[in-house]
UniProtKB/TrEMBL annotation:
UniProt keyword annotation of Secreted present: no
Gene: Pgghg
Glycoside hydrolase family 65 central catalytic domain location: 284-490
Entry EC number(s): 3.2.1.107
Coiled-coil intervals: none
Function: Catalyzes the hydrolysis of glucose from the disaccharide unit linked to hydroxylysine residues of collagen and collagen-like proteins.
Domain Glycoside hydrolase family 65 C-terminal, residue spans: 601-647
Name assigned to this protein: Protein-glucosylgalactosylhydroxylysine glucosidase
Biological process (GO), any one: carbohydrate metabolic process
InterPro entries according to UniProt: 6-hairpin_glycosidase_sf (IPR008928), 6hp_glycosidase-like_sf (IPR012341), Glyco_hydro_65_C (IPR005194), Glyco_hydro_65_M (IPR005195)
Catalyzed reactions per annotation: (5R)-5-O-[alpha-D-glucosyl-(1->2)-beta-D-galactosyl]-5-hydroxy-L-lysyl-[collagen] + H2O = (5R)-5-O-(beta-D-galactosyl)-5-hydroxy-L-lysyl-[collagen] + D-glucose
Cellular component terms per the entry's GO annotation: cytosol
Family: Belongs to the glycosyl hydrolase 65 family.
Top enzyme category: hydrolase
């Protein structure tokens, strides 16, 4: 391994961070908690009306701490193993070790578990006792909980959230079963080693909670509970493997990002379970007053989604289905503001109604509606999955977004262009501006995609969609050859975060290399250094595009001030403020690796590539790049690109692929056959044969 030894996917410390927010999270698609915390959260379970809606705190039996009161000079260690999706706390004392393991089961998503193992290291025969210090009380400020009868040795509580998100709306139910936890555990004098296992099952129905608890007990009896979790988690990690040869800190950051982001996605074998979106701080966070209350923003669609799509299109589809499920709420938002179609909320919870506590963002930060549709476009270009659009509600969403943008524009007689007035761009230091470059460019992209999609589905295309896409104003300064952030922007004005630079990527708004460079040069020095973590990754991608490798690296390096030790938990702002376990920043960082270093760009005609590595990186290997039903392993060095189709879907059948170089070479991609060619720009496309 380059730059130092040690496993880059295992984070170990002898002490915990002083700030409990920086403890690692253990999460699956339905349940999440921070280690040693006395609450957990269940996906989609919010309490509170409108702007007060927040993830409901579910009391957690998992938040206990192991102690060895009689131990002489015990050595403690704390480890997050990203390969097994498991956190552990170990106490080593004279004559024995005690280990506490904690995980959210990756295939039984309604189950979390922990175990305590005591093992003798010598021939002694005295009993060994460890204490379990628990803060658990079966009560919640957000749930009306009642105790029910025990089930298979487990205690049982159930109830509903106290306040619905919208008046008269549903109050989600929570049913929880857990193994009773004693105050101490003792290894008998005649025993060498013993493991105690404790289960917590949480679901929306009594039946599901009991089914999950029973399934867990069966695996405990077979001695394979933890092993079954590790197997499911390892299969996901293998299918989404990203490895690079480079500095240890970069490889550790990469594995940390993959662990936290992949923890948040639905498992591959649960298509029937509805997915509830990904909030900036993930499912483990989001109690009232924390991590934006667990709401879903554009962070999901713009910053996290592209990585998930490239590696796991089924999980990407589940994210889109969350947006489809909340379409009616988005229609209500548009109507209430006097517009047609659907306006996705700046902050979304269970219904799609606006739940942002501050009105200005919901009223003005409307680019989120285009961000949602861009995720649908990227998905369609990558999968050609027409079923999502024809049968599963996708087309209704596309059409509603196009209608919204048409109704939100006004014709300027003076400029003979359509304007969008009175918005807040991604740069939240400015509001009530006209013609935000990013907002208008994403609206144009929405209308162009809606037009293309209608044609693919053989549906009539409203004339106004094409007309408005052609004639919407995207501000451009002809003299300075750059994009002003909005009408009236003065060069040098401070900017909160990545905004205009997003025109180049991910929007791929048409522009010359000169304009792309000017946008980067104009906004890099005026972007707030204390702004949110995802910003620098987009500057890095821009410089990689222009082959300015040192400048790209200096931008990427800024991200490291948002990564905390020892468990690689990201904070939103480098001063530690804002959201923690900031998946948005991690998503941006992963896009530098998956789209910046590779040059991957998702287009209608193919998956482009044009690799560029900063000096310290010599090799990148991505296993499980998904494109048109194929899984590809792509290995890139400075000298050579190697590709192999490792898997093809049978239903629907995968499209045969070929790699085409800009310089003219063409290489068929057959399953199981590796091809290589000198590192150069090109694209992967459906093979015409």
């Amino acid at each position: 391994m380059a730059d130092g030894e040690g496993d880059p996917g295992v984070f170990t410390a002898t002490a915990l961070p002083g700030d409990p927010r920086l403890l690692p999270t253990v999460t699956n698609a339905f349940l999440g908690t921070r280690v040693f915390r006395d609450i957990l959260h269940a996906a989609g379970v919010y309490s509170g009306a409108a702007g007060d809606t927040h993830r409901a705190d579910v009391p957690s039996p998992l938040g206990l701490r192991m102690a060895a009161p009689g131990a002489r000079s015990p050595a403690e260690s704390f480890t997050l193993n990203t390969w097994t999706g498991t956190f552990s706390h170990t106490i080593q004392s004279l004559g024995y070790t005690a280990t506490h393991q904690l995980y959210a089961h990756h295939s039984l998503v309604h189950l979390m578990a922990f175990s305590i193992t005591i093992r003798r290291l010598d021939g002694s025969t005295h009993p060994v006792t460890v204490q379990l210090q628990s803060l658990f009380v079966p009560q919640s400020q957000d749930l009306d909980l009642t105790a029910g009868p025990d089930f298979q040795g487990a205690h049982y509580i159930y109830g509903r959230t106290l306040v619905p998100e919208v008046e008269g709306g549903p109050r989600p139910a929570v049913h929880m079963l857990w193994t009773p936890i004693p105050q101490s555990l003792t290894l008998g004098g005649e025993e060498r080693e013993r493991c105690w296992e404790f289960l917590t099952a949480v679901a929306g129905s009594e039946e599901e909670a009991k089914r999950s608890y029973s399934a867990g007990l069966s695996l405990v009896a077979a001695g394979s509970l933890h092993r079954s979790h590790v197997r499911a988690w390892a299969a996901l990690r293998r299918g989404c493997s990203v490895e690079l040869d480079g500095p240890l800190a970069l490889r550790q950051a990469l594995h940390g990002c993959l662990y936290y982001l992949l923890s948040a996605i639905p498992p591959r074998d649960s298509p029937g379970v509805p997915f509830h979106g990904i909030s900036p701080g993930g499912l483990s966070n989001g109690t009232r007053g924390e991590d934006y209350w667990g709401h879903v923003f554009w962070d999901q669609d713009t910053w996290m989604f592209p990585n998930i799509l490239l590696l796991d299109p089924e999980a990407a589809r589940a994210i889109l289905q969350y947006r489809i499920r909340t379409l009616e709420g988005a229609r209500r938002n548009a109507r209430e503001q006097g517009y047609e179609g659907a306006k996705f909320p700046w902050e979304s919870a269970a219904t799609g109604r606006e739940v942002c506590p501050e009105e200005i963002y919901g009223a003005q930060e409307i680019h989120v509606t285009g961000d949602v549709l861009m995720a649908f476009e990227q998905y369609y270009c990558t999968t050609q999955d027409q079923k999502l659009f024809r049968e599963d509600g996708g087309w209704e969403l596309v059409e509603a977004v196009a209608q919204y943008w048409c109704s939100r524009m006004e014709w300027s007689e003076e400029e003979q262009l359509y304007h969008i007035r009175g918005v807040m761009p991604p740069d939240e230091y400015h509001s009530q501006v006209d013609n935000s470059a990013y907002t208008n460019a994403v609206a144009r992209r929405s209308l162009s995609f809606a037009t293309d999609m209608a044609r693919d589905l053989l549906l009539p295309v409203p004339e106004e969609w094409e007309d408005r896409a052609r004639k919407i104003k995207v501000p451009f300064d002809e003299e300075r050859k750059y994009h002003p952030e909005y009408d009236g922007y003065s060069p040098g004005e401070p900017v909160k975060q990545a905004d205009v630079v997003l025109l180049g990527f991910p929007l791929m708004h048409p522009m010359s290399a000169e304009v792309r460079r000017n946008d980067l040069e104009m906004y890099e020095p005026v972007t707030d250094p204390a702004g949110p973590a995802m910003t620098w990754s987009m500057f890095a991608v821009g410089w990689l595009e222009l082959k300015e490798l040192q400048r790209a690296w200096s931008q990427l390096e800024k991200c490291f001030s948002n990564i905390t030790e020892p468990f690689k938990v990201w904070v939103e702002n480098s001063d530690g403020s804002g959201a923690v376990n900031f998946l948005t920043g991690m998503g941006g960082f992963l896009q530098v690796v998956l789209f910046g270093f590779t040059g991957f760009r998702i287009t209608r005609s193919g998956l482009l590539f044009d690799p560029a590595f900063p000096d310290d990186i010599t090799k990148l290997k991505v296993s499980g790049v998904s494109y048109l039903g194929n899984k590809l392993e792509v290995t890139i060095t400075r000298e050579e690109i190697r590709m192999e189709v490792t898997e093809t879907s049978r239903d629907p059948p995968a499209s045969p692929l070929e790699a085409v170089l800009e310089s003219g070479g063409c290489f068929p991609l057959w399953e199981g056959q590796s091809i290589s060619f000198p590192t150069a720009p090109g694209w992967i496309q459906r093979s015409p044969s």
